[in-house]
Amino acid sequence: MIVIFIAAGVLAIVGAAVLGREFGRARLPPAQDGPGASKPEGCENAVKEWDDARQKACNAKREQDAAQILATDLRGQVVAATAVHVALVIAAVATYAAAAAAIATVFGIPAGIVLTGVAIGLTVAAAAALLVLIGLTASLTAADDDLLLKIRNRQDWDNRVADLRAAINRTCPVERAEAALARPGPC
Q1: Residue 64 placed within a domain
Q2: Which residues cross the membrane (predicted)?
């Protein structure tokens, strides 16, 4: 019988982790693709690709900022769920102790029975809070993975912008390069 309860507990924990991670992934917006490694040919192609790369770098920054906000929000939820779980565990342990103390006397047996029922309820609530905590932690892991992907994507676009800026300086006449590089950025 104990083996069945342990197996059910393990299945519940694994299920909460898997469902939490998949739920976390499902909430994530898709990331734009990173830049290619092509080299522009000629001044005008370099300027055109530079403008496009600057816009995509802005998009990548916005995606990174949104991913950071989501990860930060999930961190706060994990902290709150941890606090609830710990409070429920402490309350259950204290109630079990009170029930044991009440049962130690003949007159306290009815109170001990009631307190044991309350303690069992608190234990079930603590177990449910643990499953929620595991699910939120798995969602946070998915959000952190997404954040890292978007940070790398932004860095790749920033590097592409710098490479194309160098290509403009290398391939364009000075006046054309200065005019192109003086335009304000899209973000």
Answers
A1: yes
A2: 83-107, 114-140
The conformation of residue 187, written as its DSSP 8-state character, comes to -
State the sign of the Cα–Cα–Cα–Cα dihedral 118, 120, 126, 128: negative
Instruction: Tell me what pLDDT residue 125 has.
Output: 94
* Segment 70-81, tens digit of pLDDT: 999 999 999 999
**For range 44-61, the mean pLDDT:** 92
The answer to whether position 178 is within a domain reads: no
- What is the spatial distance between Cα 51 and Cα 187, in angstroms, rounded to a whole number? 12
Element (H, E) at 168: helix 109-171
* Per-residue pLDDT tens over the stretch 119-139: 999 999 999 999 999 999 999
How far apart, in whole angstroms, are the C-alpha atoms of residue 147 and residue 145? 5
Please give the DSSP secondary-structure letter assigned to residue 32: P
CA proximity to 23, closest of 150, 138, 145:
138
Helix (H, G, I), strand (E, B) or coil at 36: coil
Residue 186 included in any domain: no
Quote the CA–CA distance of 32 and 63 in Å, as a whole number: 9
pTM of the shown model: 0.76
> How many structural domains is the chain composed of?
1
